[in-house]
Amino acid sequence: MLWSGWGDPARARELPEQVRGLLRDFLGVRAPATPAVALESVRLPPVALPEPLLGALAGVVGAAHVLTSHGARVRHTRGKSTPDLLRMRAGDGSDAPDAVVLPGSHDEVAELLRVCSAERIAVVPFGGGTSVVGGLSGVAGGAAPGGPGFAGVIALDLARLDRLLSVDEESLVASFEAGVRAPEAERLLAGRGLTLGHFPQSFEYATLGGFAAARSSGQASAGYGRFDDMVMGLTVATPSGTLDLGRAPRSAAGPDLRQLMLGSEGAFGVITSLRLRVRRAPVERRYEGWRFGTFAEGSAAVRALAQEGPLPTVLRLSDETETMIGLAKPDAIGSGGSGCLLIAGYEGGSVAGRRAEAGAVLSRMGGEPLGAEPGEAWERGRFSAPYLRDSLLAVGATVETLETAGFWSNLPRLYDAVRLALAGSLPSPLVMCHVSHVYETGASLYFTVVTAQEGDPVAQWDRAKAAANAAIVEAGGTITHHHGVGRDHRDACAAELGPAGVSVLQAVKARLDPAGILNPGVLVPPPARDI
Ligand SMILES: Cc1cc2nc3c(=O)[nH]c(=O)nc-3n(C[C@H](O)[C@H](O)[C@H](O)COP(=O)(O)OP(=O)(O)OC[C@H]3O[C@@H](n4cnc5c(N)ncnc54)[C@H](O)[C@@H]3O)c2cc1C
Predict the structure, then answer these.
(1) Are 333 and 16 a contacting pair, CB within 8 Å?
(2) First and final CA of the chain: distance in angstroms?
(3) Distance from CA of residue 390 to its chain's centroid?
(4) Cβ neighbours of residue 170 under 8 Å, at least 6 residues apart?
(5) Helix or strand run (H / E) with residue 234
(6) Are strands 121-126 and 152-157 parallel, antiparallel or unpaired?
(7) Nearest CA-CA partner of 436 in 334, 329, 531, 299
(8) Residues 6+ away with beta carbon under 8 Å from 71
(9) From ligand 1's centre to the CA of 206, what distance in Å?
(10) pLDDT digits over 360-372, tens only?
């Protein structure tokens, strides 16, 4: 993974001239951004953890698995939001962990949490490092790393927990360690003719534990569900003991504590393994395009599919601006069309029948079939968009995404509110949106924003993000549908949960993590007396 950007550096892309022209003429992008500093030039704070504590950590996992090198610390600094990347490009490594620690088993994780609680070392669980909400940013909302309260901070990298543990082919449940990356999980399952069906745009790098910890949702959520739908059980190491949750698909044995751990973002415990619902790998796949005159018409059609069925496996409706730019086909960016493009994908059995039935609904709702080409172009480019972000940052444009969800009846209001907030807080931004996670009762809205960098681009984006957050809260949407809370959404999440809700989170945190070492500052607001 490129430390100052996204993905495999070999896949870095030049922007087509047409897109450069668009950036220049419509967004006023003039000055290329300062190039990223060299990795060796990233400024890191000195390692705050003293030798005896590093030795205590090495006593648990072995000296070879406690890393304090410059490179290891840089690669575990923050996540992959645009502000994260802008800071890293500028050489700001101020949130770096003191050490990267790689446990090899659940028992080692549990023992590390015991040592870190006793020695007051903050612990940031680190999966694929793809958080876009400030979920990996060291110690926030209280003591600074190495400052009062903590002896230091470690990134607890789960990369060594990388095994498929078992497959129950009768129940269609596979048990994995939490550090398995998504492509490896799919590879291991493919050998048995199975799939998880979870394909977020961060697929290439993110881990199964990270998906559960942040309640991820993938591109094929219409067919396979969100990641939290797939979690049948999990094992979580906490400073107060181990939770082993999930004996049956559903249960009436009190509140479902699995739900408490899903979305807990490393603040309540470290997920060390998961039991996941898997499906038979699809024998057939077909992706295709449809055009609608307006986003409102397309949304009505998507709602009809969600409420009446049949639901395709992949469903993505771009608004007019996103369609014009061609973002649904990142490999052909800049060559969009008119109206609103809908991508519908069908996987698994009875593809022809489901396709015909869904096609009848889409036609009835005013859709025009565009054939296989747009669907196949979407499929080719389905993991390419994050690479485009690096190219845009390099030419002096900021590009970032944000998302929300709401009930169908409130979506138009939410859509308008977010667009207005972004337009009012950035210089002539290009704001694009799509719907790609749908339910009978509502859907998520996913916005992509491009703007010319002016002044300090991090401060510029922070202002826009604050305006968008406020608009989402005010318009009655949820602050996040699948990116999670982290540090960036913590206050808005608190507003959404209300004081009683926040006190429940605080109570759970205090019970499971009495020393408060787990991902401090993320998800759970500190109790009022600590503010
Ligand atoms: C380019 C890009 C595209 C993305 N596309 C999508 C998308 O399509 N859909 C989507 O849902 N998200 C998407 N994301 C967001 C991100 O990939 C998800 O939030 C993902 O779930 C994070 O997984 P990870 O393994 O990288 O976790 P990390 O980023 O390493 O961690 C995420 C959070 O979970 C905690 N954590 C990680 N592992 C564990 C564990 N084992 N136990 C306890 N806590 C843990 C971390 O401390 C952190 O707070 C995208 C991000 C990027 C950068």
Answers:
(1) yes
(2) 36
(3) 17
(4) none
(5) strand 231-238
(6) parallel
(7) 299
(8) 3, 39
(9) 6
(10) 999 999 999 999 9
- In tens, the pLDDT along 57-113 reads 999 999 999 999 999 999 999 999 999 999 999 999 999 999 999 999 999 999 999
What does pLDDT average to over the chain? 94
Taking alpha carbons only, the member of 201, 216, 161 closest to residue 185 is 161
Strand partners, 242: 237
User: Are the C-beta atoms of 337 and 323 separated by less than 8 Å?
Assistant: yes
Q: Tokens 């052909």 — which residue?
A: 332
CA-based torsion, 305, 306, 312, 314: positive or negative? positive
Q: Ligand 1: which atom is nearest the Cα of residue 199?
A: 8
Using CB distances shorter than 6 Å, the residues near ligand 1 are: 6, 79-80, 124-132, 135-136, 158, 178, 200-202, 206-207, 209-211, 213-214, 216-218, 265-266, 270-271, 386, 482-484, 486, 519, 522
Pairwise CA distance, residues 186 & 198, whole Å = 9
Its pTM stands at 0.96
Give helix then strand counts, H and E, for the chain.
18, 18
- Ligand 1 atom nearest to 522, measured from its CA: 49
